[in-house]
Write a structure and sequence with these properties.
13 strands; globular; six-stranded mixed sheet; alpha/beta
């Protein structure tokens, strides 16, 4: 049995990592003004940040069932006898619905994992699936590994403003903060598949210090070890400083820092910092 692993580009996997771990990535679509782009192909997070700053309309859409079908068919042609498809929360995107429509036409079984997460937490779940796949696990065991990794993920999200989440309809119950958005710097998290408020802090510096402290505490929950990553949009210096503080706290050589994917970037806005901690 050959099991292929699929995820979507919101998982923010580095292309080199995806190739090495043999994870197929299905791209989402990003629209800037009237121009249509494919994430990971012809659009960058930097371009998204520039458009948002210039107040140009930016929107995103899930991959089409036809896009998923083409990826699934390619994997089958390469010898896959089963597919495990690992995706971001169904509460914030219809991506997994497109995948399920495509699976109805796939000649091999397709098993789905709704990670109920966003960003690199989905990527960590897909990577966990790939690791157990490479150890010879069954499709059921691979699905279980991805779900377990997602459940062990803690996402801490700092945004300069809730405006972009509000525009994209991704703010969930964090909408309760919008009225006071000018007075606070919100720290958000992902709970039950939705972006929700965690804490309200008065300044950016205090909010980022709190994110570092909460991430350190999150690491303490996983005595068997964990992986972590810092993502940002147009805020590399800020993200690098957060990563350095976490590396020092955990005694690590470094914590990876990456710019967030274009799709997620369109919804969080410039200045965003996200820390994801996933227990092993």
């Amino acid at each position: 049995m050959t099991v292929a692993i699929v995820t979507d580009s919101t998982a923010s996997l580095d292309p080199a990592d995806a190739r090495r771990e043999k994870i197929a990535v299905v791209p989402t679509t990003v629209v800037i003004g009237s121009e249509v782009f494919t994430e990971g192909v012809d659009i960058t997070a930097e371009r998204i940040a520039e458009a948002l700053t210039a107040k140009i309309k930016v929107s995103t859409s899930r991959p089409s069932p036809e896009t998923f079908a083409a990826v699934y068919e390619g994997l089958v042609a390469d010898g896959a006898t089963e597919i495990v498809s690992v995706h971001l929360s169904a509460k914030v995107s219809g991506t997994i619905d497109s995948a399920k429509l495509a699976a109805a036409r796939c000649p091999v079984p397709v098993h789905f994992v709704d990670t109920r997460q966003v960003g690199i937490a989905t990527g960590f779940a897909a990577a966990a699936a790939a690791r157990v796949r490479d150890l010879g696990a069954s499709s059921a065991e691979i699905v279980a590994a991805a779900r377990a990794a997602a459940e062990r993920s803690i996402v801490l999200l700092y945004v300069d403003t809730l405006e972009y989440l509000k525009r994209g309809g991704r703010v969930g119950v964090a909408a309760s903060l919008i009225g006071s958005a000018l007075a606070v710097k919100p720290i958000l998290t992902v709970r039950d598949g939705e972006v929700v408020p965690l804490e309200k802090v008065r300044t950016a510096s205090k909010a980022l210090a709190r994110v570092v402290e909460l991430a350190r505490q999150a690491g303490d929950r996983f005595p068997r070890g964990f992986v972590a990553g810092v993502q940002h949009l147009a805020a590399r210096e800020r993200a690098t400083d957060v990563a350095a503080q976490l590396a020092a706290a955990w005694g690590w050589e470094r914590v990876p820092v990456d710019e967030v994917g274009a799709d997620i970037g369109a919804h969080v806005g410039p200045g965003m910092i996200a820390v994801t901690v996933t227990g092993r």
